[in-house]
Amino acid sequence: MSHVRHVLILTVLLAAPASAQNLDSLLSRMTLEEKLGQLNLLSAGGRASPEQMQLVRAGKLGGLFNVMGAENTTPVQRIAVTESRLKIPLLFGLDVIHGYRAIFPIPLGEASSFDPEAAEATARAAGQEAAAFGINWTYAPMVDIARDPRWGRIAEGSGEDPYLGSLMAAARVRGFQQNIFATAKHFAGYGAAEAGREYNETEISERTMREVYLPPFKAAVDAGVTSLMSAFNDVAGVPASGNAWLTDTVLRREWRFPGFVVSDWTSVAELINHGIAGSQAEAGRRALTAGVDMDMQSSIYVDSLAALVQSNRIPLAVVDSAVMRILRAKQRLGLFRDPYRARTAPPATELRALARRVAGESIVLLKNERSLLPLAKAGTIAVIGPLADNKEEPLGPWHTQGRAEDVVSVLQGIKTKVQTVLYAQGSGIDDTSKAGFAAAVAAARQAKVAVLVLGERGDMSGEAASRSSLGLPGVQEQLLEAVAATGTPVVLVLMNGRPLILEWASDHVPAIVETWFLGIEAGNATADVLFGDVNPSARLPVTFPRVLGQVPLYYNHRNTGRPPDANNKYTSKYIDVPVTPRYPFGYGLSYTTFGYSNLKLSAARARVSDTITATVTVTNSGGREGTEVVQLYVRDEVASVSRPVRELKAFRRVTLKPGESRAVDLRVAVRDLWFIGLDMKPVVEPGTFRVYVGPNSAEGLEATFECIP
Q1: CB 3.0-4.6 Å disulfide test: which of 375, 428, 496, 601 passes with 455?
Q2: Are 541 and 111 in contact (CB under 8 A)?
Q3: What is the overall mean pLDDT for the chain?
Q4: 669 and 542, same structural domain?
Q5: Same structural domain for residues 382 and 328?
Q6: Alpha-carbon distance 674 to 672, whole Å?
Q7: Does 559 reside within a domain?
Q8: CA distance 707 to 709
Q9: Dihedral angle at the C-alpha atoms of 497, 500, 505, 507, nearest 10 degrees?
């Protein structure tokens, strides 16, 4: 489906049925308490409490979240539209991150597909299913750029690159908003938490904020996202939930964002902990006047701000503007016309088919010595590990209404492909005991190949799940070493929500497959790849370091005055480990091989208004049909500000038959090569640009062109 058609669908779905004049009239009839009530958002424990229902009757609640099921949302909505004085409908929100009940791959896994259309499809399906259960607003997508894998919420986003992150952000917004409202979060810089520690402070220059952390939010705004969520963190000492530069200057004045901003959970009250407010009322004043329209869970706006408005410490116009943004959103969603919005969930077979297809696209083949993979569908296979027969952890973090009973485990998936399977758990996920090793070793000795399914629990990633180490938890690495010592060839299947440190495995295990948390079809999708029914095509959306001491490590870093040089001690590197990553951004293998040749640019010179087309011949030089992700990176050779060594600017998924060659075009608008100049404004400067086209961020053919005035 084309982007244009998506926009048309979105326009029809969210078209306002009443005039702005009607909303003006409604606002004029509201008391101050009712206005502040529209800015109040509370969580319910599955269903609204009697106290919350009374707030709805009194017009002191603009929305509820965590109300589960239409049988619970409908009665509360009925109270709002029949028993409250002004009959204003409610928003019903939920963290529908990567599925409602049908759980798809975590967003970091989906980003590995380098397929925005796939992300749009899963968001559309998740939104439709959520809408059938009474939800009309999701707190997704999370579009934070994350460069530190210690931070647990790296699992929720699209990785380290602002270009890929922007495409995925826009795709998910379009997908969700065919059925429910989307929320781009967390505005902004949350992914830069120091030490990778959840909720921690950030120190981000304005240049880096604008070049790295803000572009995915801008893409979400351009895609029509209805709301943004303010972040927990501060930005250089100013908390995001009280940061007028972010929410007023950038979001509203520069980007002309017409939607509303909701705080994160109690982040308004947390301005007190940040030390910029001495009371709840002051925290509320700081947040509301900075541009945070809706207070999630603190109840500060509705409880503490009336006196400040009446004393003119908060202008009434500020309150009215925030209320109007909420009312316009409800109107845009059609709630005044159809407050209950009955919807039908997609068929379960359709959801499962989509989940399996996208999960298959999200699996990254990291290593495959001597073509151990794909496996033959004959002979005895040992399946080992704490995640092999696990149906809970593949759901990953934030799996909403996902249930283990819906999940196909990796063991189950493998059993559909091959008859003789020996299973041994070996250990728990974070066990310290090696009691199960003997059974695992015995199984491996009887098999032609051992598949070890290792990694994290789902709750080791996501919110409040920062890790100080990135190795396999518990005794899993020792289990891997014990099985490998049998001499039976080993395939390591990883299940995790972040890059892991794989020092021993990368050096000693012949085949490694990164599956992330794939959702309900994890087992089938993993087996499809292991046995060659699906040729892996995913690429890493985030860098895998060699050791923890390299973190943070990302491909699009700036150069230094002394770039790494193995022949010169006094250059930027370590004395005990290479400076390069274990697996670079954009990396991934296939069961076939691809060659690149004949790179040509459409022009040697171009103006800012022009588009440069890079054409490269890609050849499938192996024996299987496969899909290559052809990637284009650019470097601004000389600029007034130091620029990254490479920046992703285009990519294409290209499927080729064995022996087939194709000329692949990748287009880059020269205006998209902007950066923040010395005057803190976007600029594309004349000069030489180096173009790299290849299979990942560390390899590729090169060409140059000159940007002229």
Answers
A1: 496
A2: yes
A3: 96
A4: no
A5: no
A6: 5
A7: no
A8: 7
A9: 140
Which of these, 100, 651, 106, lies nearest to 358 by C-alpha position? 106
CB-based contact 231:157 (threshold 8 Å) = no
Axis-axis angle for helices 116-132, 348-361 (nearest 10): 150
Indicate whether this model's pTM tops 0.85: yes
Residues 320, 395 within the same domain: no
DSSP β-ladder status, 675-676 and 661-669: unpaired
Domain that holds residue 700: 594-707
> What domain count does the chain have?
3
- Is 565 within a domain? no
- C-alpha dihedral (227, 233, 236, 241), degrees to nearest 10: 40
368 and 284 together in one domain: no
What's the alpha-carbon Rg for the chain, to the nearest Å? 26
CB 165 within 8 A of CB 143: yes
Number of residues assigned to the chain: 709
Tell me whether residue 264 is one of the annotated catalytic residues. Answer: yes
- CB burial of residue 345 (10 Å; 0-12, 13-18, 19+): middle
Q: Is 150 left (phi over 0), alpha (psi -120 to 50) or beta?
A: alpha
Task: Say if residue 63 is in the same domain as residue 12.
Answer: yes
User: 437 with 512, same domain?
Assistant: yes
Longest dimension (CA), the chain: 80
207 CB-contact burial (10 Å; exposed 0-12 / middle 13-18 / buried 19+): middle
Span 70-89, pLDDT tens digits? 999 999 999 999 999 999 99
pLDDT single digits (tens) 182-225:
999 999 999 999 999 999 999 999 999 999 999 999 999 999 99
**632 DSSP β-pair partners:** 650, 693
Do 630 and 512 fall within a single domain?
no
Q: 614 and 663 in contact (C-beta within 8 Å)? A: no
Structure tokens at 689: 């640009």
DSSP string across 111-148: HTTT-HHHHHHHHHHHHHHHHHTT--EE---B------
Residue 2 scores a pLDDT above 50? no
Query: Looking at the structure, do residues 385 and 455 belong to the same domain, yes or no?
Result: yes
**Domain assignment present for 204:** yes
CA-CA distances (angstroms) from residue 552 to 16, 318, 495, 541?
45, 40, 22, 15
